[in-house]
Write a structure and sequence with these properties.
globular, alpha/beta, Rossmann fold, 322 residues, 6-stranded mixed sheet, 10 strands, 4-stranded parallel sheet, 14 helices
Length: 322
């Protein structure tokens, strides 16, 4: 096994640190999907996590690594929404000033959640503009910049999702997760492959923003044409120096890409199971329609990463008739 700087022990220690401030989210057997795809499908419901997504895990873990003087200076992060909400939650819990830089088209429900947690907010034309400004401000002020993915503490926290899956379903055959910058996926890969290399890990990206899928296919960081996606949490530029890529490239078994239409269909299917899920959170479900007989007879855990979407946007995406 390749020697990466993040170990299974790091992930276990991260879980011990954050477990009292997060939920051990349910791993729920889903009858509808299991019958539809003729296999055993379990949903790892991180949409039921505190703040409505898995992101609180990484922010808590990172803030707990900071020295007191760093906490006093505060933290800053760019976010399409969920990363910022997770950071704001962790910052409020640990009494750390938090400043979140957002694109001006951020979902209103996410903006309201950030305000509820007391984060300072600034708005920019795009998420990339927000990232550049946040990096610059962090350098100027001494605040700690918190990447949503390119940080060992965030990756280790992503791996805690895998620890809970194994605890609840030790004989899982395949774990499918959503893929943006790769913090969650790389942590899950490290944890699962360290515990049982036979467990398969698949990740799912939007076809409109297939950065890591392309890099993985090419075996190197390369230029990728990006289009906007309704799954804003999984789209946009990725730091070419990210430490998530070598981990994912080494361990991942498959990266799939899904269309906007497939994401919408998955959101509708989740609604049939009484769950409102944001587009990014539905990507893992969306990929099932591509898998055919390959997944039959397997025990599959799909990470449903988040629920944070305004009702008006949800309705506009799935259509009122559905």
């Amino acid at each position: 096994m390749k020697n990466f700087s993040i170990t299974l022990q790091d992930i276990i220690q991260s879980h011990q640190k954050i477990q009292h401030s997060i939920h051990h989210t349910p791993l729920e057997y889903n009858e509808v999907f299991s019958q539809l795809y003729k296999t055993d499908i379990y949903l790892k419901l991180e949409n039921l996590q505190v703040t409505g997504s898995f992101k609180a895990r990484g922010s808590l873990n990172k803030l707990l690594t900071l020295e007191e003087i760093e906490r006093q200076r505060g933290v800053i992060a760019p976010s399409a929404g969920n990363h910022g909400i997770g950071l704001a939650y962790a910052a409020k819990k640990l009494n750390v000033p938090a400043h979140v830089y957002l694109p001006k088209n951020a979902d209103q429900s996410k903006i309201q959640a950030l305000k509820n947690y007391g984060a300072q907010l600034s708005f920019f034309e795009t998420i990339e503009d927000a990232r550049i400004a946040a990096v610059s401000t962090a350098h100027e002020t001494g605040k700690t910049f918190l990447s949503a993915y390119n940080d060992p503490a965030v990756i280790s926290a992503g791996g805690t999702v895998a620890l809970e899956i194994i605890e609840d379903l030790a004989d899982v055959d395949l774990v499918i997760t959503c893929l943006g910058g790769g913090g969650l996926t790389s942590g899950i890969c490290l944890a699962l492959k360290s515990i049982n290399p036979k467990i398969k890990v698949w990740a799912v990206e939007p076809k409109n923003s297939p950065s890591l899928a392309t890099w993985h296919d090419q075996g190197k960081v390369t230029s990728v044409e990006l289009k906007s996606s309704i799954a804003e949490g999984l789209s946009g530029p990725i730091d070419p120096e990210t430490i998530t890529f070598p981990i994912i490239h080494h361990y991942i078994d498959r990266i799939l890409t899904v269309s906007e239409e497939e994401i919408v269909a998955a959101m509708r299917l989740m609604l049939q199971s009484q769950y409102i899920v944001e587009p990014s959170g539905a990507a893992g479900i969306a990929a099932l329609s591509q898998c055919g007989d390959e997944i039959k007879g397997l025990k599959i855990a799909i990470v449903v990463t988040g629920r944070n979407i305004s009702w008006s946007r949800f309705i506009s995406i799935i259509g009122e008739s559905n």
